[in-house]
Predict the 3D structure of the following.
Amino acid sequence: MVATETNVLEKAMIVLENASACALYLPEYSAIVCVVKREFIIRSDFRALFETVGAAARIYLPNKIIFDMRKMEVFDQKIMTWYHTEWKPRLFKEIGLKKYRKLLPQNKLFRKYVAMNREQLAKQHAFDFSVFDIRHCETMEQALEF
């Protein structure tokens, strides 16, 4: 049977579920999947999502985290700065996690904004993206595979 996004996620263990997002652990893939359910996720919900994911990562020790942002239309740059400059380095230091897969919306402007934010993080915060294995994928299947 071909692994589809639906049947893969049905086998997941729920880490967090609320109106803004859900986080699932997929033992078969050694991955935690974070799915944003709305066009925008407020700062407190985003932080709660990733603090919970961080706690789960310390327990399950996944090989990767997949961040599914396909429903998003905009993002809060300040919380993304926290995510990249504080949260990711903390998990790298604590459990060695450095593999991230991102599913972006098809919106070209959103993708451009992501690229601009990445450049700004590297310049203003000296964030070294080369420490991490970050890839943008088009499908959940691709994100799970790579």
About this structure: The domain at 5-145 is CATH 3.30.750.24 (Transcription Regulator spoIIAA). The chain has a mean pLDDT of 93.
